[in-house]
């Protein structure tokens, strides 16, 4: 099915939009797989006869598997052609989903979410690095933004559609829906993606060397801080904005929809801005924007219309971070190291998501104040902005230099 793994592929920049669109659809499937479980948890809990908190561990299993396995899998598969890597990743994701839908045992379903998380982890970092190569240096930021737009579109379309399917036909039908999308993307990648290799022959130890690079670590810390900030109020949206929604699920769904649409727009705009002005400036502007929006949410959280407006602004600035951060970390990649460093960055974002749920739970349990999450999240975002500014100032305007071509790809 994968065809020949050798042969000439187009030069960077040639036909990149069409091929990147396939990767965007893959990112959409991966994002939907992660987000749709949240809306299906009550029904899954009833089916498996477990509590809501136990059912919630399905989300944690996916997220932790993603965070921990992403860099390792990128290193192990670094010598493979990208086409083979991404098809294999989608097969893992589809297999995990099939077990999730078919199993009636909680332990087996939990294990299946780990398998699905592994597939998602393997796909995402490779898709970003592949898109960066396909577009070439001048359009790299836009290509990365297109791929990450798939994740934000999963918030707008995938998760709500999957939740609706689950309500009408049962949660297993929603999982099969995602699996069908995954299968279609795998076929498209196998048929249409050129045979690109992004890695050079290297040992696993050599591929882990980016972790000793201070530049890489600084980018990762910014990603961690920013995503703890972003997901603190997002994860506990129903509690933070309860005064405005009154517990109405339709109002909460509208907030999610507005956030997702705005996040998609912000992500795409951030790619173009990163190409024009440099990704570090976009990250600084976005994290300062997150700080400001979260502080403005405090006096407006009791009125629904202002909350909707604030969510639109929050979506724009929140998802203006990940694309430029991927752009920044690729610049620090050694020869053949782009898949590893982008996987590290994506897994760090997922780790931030996981940590935000823990931090939020502790704050709610100890203080009982959901409003307190907003200024704490603003503090994390401000720290991310400060670290990015300090890094840029200490290293000068070349903080994010164009990566050498050999850092991104070598063709078969």
Automatic annotation (TrEMBL):
Its main location: membrane. The chain crosses the membrane at residues 21-41, 61-78, 85-104, 110-131, 143-165, 171-194, 215-234, 254-274, 281-298, 304-323, 370-390. Residues 19-396 form the Major facilitator superfamily (MFS) profile domain. Keywords: Cell membrane, Membrane, Transmembrane, Transmembrane helix. It is found in: Cell membrane. The keyword Membrane applies. It comes from the Bacteria. InterPro entries: MFS, MFS_dom, MFS_Efflux_Transporters, MFS_trans_sf. It is a multi-pass membrane protein. Residues 393-412 are annotated as: Disordered. This is MFS transporter. It comes from Saccharopolyspora taberi.
